[in-house]
């Protein structure tokens, strides 16, 4: 019992030492970048960034950051774009723009509701040769299957319509 308590105390002491300032490697300073991040609701641009332990410490000018963090390991960003905080395996950024000019089916709870959105879009965009849209989810519609071409034709029969599923993996 005493041996276990001594081992636990030694482990806690070692963990405490590891968490002390200066107990780990110096911070890293990435410089020579075109950096963009959000500061509240504003886009903030920067040329350098200091990070430590996987967290951004500060962004700003390289000279000022070198003065503030003289022991930081410098990393040349080679003039590339840096987007800290964008953590995603991939992003469909262009689709965000398309959402504003296409048929939006996100949030529809039935095939009928989706068909009505397609009809309404076709009425207000009669001059287009064909229509695009996205956001349908047959699971929310409780169909038990994907929608059929004939069901889409029932909404707009005189021109092509292409609708992408909410995950972008089916048309």
Indicate how many domains the architecture comprises.
2
Characterize the largest beta sheet: strand count, sense, and whether it forms a barrel.
4 strands, mixed
- Low-pLDDT windows of residues: 4-20
Average per-residue pLDDT, rounded, comes to: 85
- Give me the secondary-structure category: alpha/beta
Task: Supply the CATH superfamily name of the largest domain.
Answer: Urease, subunit C, domain 1
CATH classification, class level of the largest domain: Mainly Beta
Helix content: 25-40%
Calculate Rg over CA atoms.
27 Å
N-to-C series of helices and strands:
HEEEEEHEEHEHEHHE
Gap between N and C termini: 65 Å
Task: Please characterize this protein's 3D structure.
With 171 residues, the protein is α/β, with parallel strands linked by helices. The chain folds into two domains: 2-82, Urease, subunit C, domain 1 (Roll); 93-165, Diaminopimelate Epimerase, Chain A, domain 1. Helices cover 31% and strands 26% of the residues. It is built from six helices and ten strands; from the N terminus they run αβββββαββαβαβααβ. The protein has helices spanning 2-18, 62-68, 93-98, 111-124, 138-141, 149-153; strands at residues 28-31, 34-39, 42-46, 48-52, 55-60, 73-76, 81-82, 103-104, 131-136, 161-165. The strands form three sheets. The chain has a four-stranded mixed beta sheet with strand order 5-4-1-6, covered by helices on one side. The chain has a three-stranded mixed beta sheet with strand order 3-2-7, with no helix packed on it. It has a three-stranded parallel beta sheet with strand order 8-9-10, with helices on one face. A hairpin with a 2-residue loop joins strand 2 and strand 3. The longest helix has 17 residues, at 2-18. The protein is elongated. The model is unreliable at 4-20 (pLDDT under 50).
